[in-house]
Amino acid sequence: MGAQLRVYKQKISSAQTTKKITKAMELIAASRIQKAMGRVRASSPFTRAVTRAVSAVATYSDVDHPLTREPEVVRRSAVVIFSSDRGLAGAFNSQVLRAGLEQAELLRREGREPVFYVVGRKAVGYFQFRRVATAAEWIGDTDTPHFSTAEGIADTLLEAFNLGGQDGGVDEIHLVYNRFVSMMTQTPETVRLLPLEVVDAGEGTAAETPVYPLYEFEPDPETVLDALLPVYIQSRVFNALLQSSAAKHAATQKAMKSASDNADKLITDYTRLRNNARQAEITQQIAEIVGGADALASGK
């Protein structure tokens, strides 16, 4: 009985230590979520403005530009997967990796070769373990992304897009990342970044068609698109990095809260078992004393 009591005490102590760690990580994640969401809110207006400007130039001009030109044959498609550098975030990384692989399988069924670009150590480790080739990798800047990382990713993607699938580049670009919906919900989202879909200004009703501001293109629409293209890609990639960061912190907080609750349950269960074992030991000792007393009494 004594050995069993020691085992239960060790398990209770271990669960209490684990709870302290998970509770601290939960509080850290909660504090980081607010900062991450603030950065998302700060970057979203600029991203929307750039997207609207690019869409307006592409919609209300007749210029044939690689930004909006649909290739006759799509040979290779870039799939950019945004994961995290750290774990302990529940299904955060597994669901975005699953979404990225599903997108790649969909492209294969359409006769397009997927080319993987991965962000975060978890995605890099996943592809290395399965020996799946990647075109480029970025690690070390997923918790608090910097714009320089988005610039590096955008430059690599733009270089591959300008090269074209026939010459070893890509013909289209898809972003796969976790979007922050709420503190409890983070959903994987797949967005085609390039080529940009152009909406015919004459189609649809007034309620369905977005109203773009009136722009004057100086010196000409093609030059404007050349200038907006890198800015557009950088802003969309940076927004995806920020969304993924906020979603990761929310997933970490949710996972750590669940771990703390499970530790509380373990402590309660092991405490009950320890009390039962101690009561059984006391009962056994009393029974032995009573039995010894009876044996002495009967021997007189």
TrEMBL record:
Localisation: Cell membrane; Membrane
InterPro entries on file: ATP_synth_F1_ATPase_gsu (IPR035968), ATP_synth_F1_gsu (IPR000131)
SUPFAM superfamilies, sorted: ATP synthase (F1-ATPase), gamma subunit
GO molecular function, a single term: ATP binding
Keywords: ATP synthesis, Cell membrane, CF(1), Coiled coil, Hydrogen ion transport, Ion transport, Membrane, Transport
Record Pfam families: ATP-synt (PF00231)
Domain of life: Bacteria
GO cellular component: plasma membrane; proton-transporting ATP synthase complex
GO biological process annotation, one example: proton motive force-driven plasma membrane ATP synthesis
UniProt KW Ribonucleoprotein keyword: no
Coiled-coil annotated residue ranges, if any: 256-283
Membrane topology: Peripheral membrane protein
Function text: Produces ATP from ADP in the presence of a proton gradient across the membrane. The gamma chain is believed to be important in regulating ATPase activity and the flow of protons through the CF(0) complex.
Family: Belongs to the ATPase gamma chain family.
UniProt subunit comment: F-type ATPases have 2 components, CF(1) - the catalytic core - and CF(0) - the membrane proton channel. CF(1) has five subunits: alpha(3), beta(3), gamma(1), delta(1), epsilon(1). CF(0) has three main subunits: a, b and c.
Name the record gives this protein: ATP synthase gamma chain
The gene coding this protein: atpG
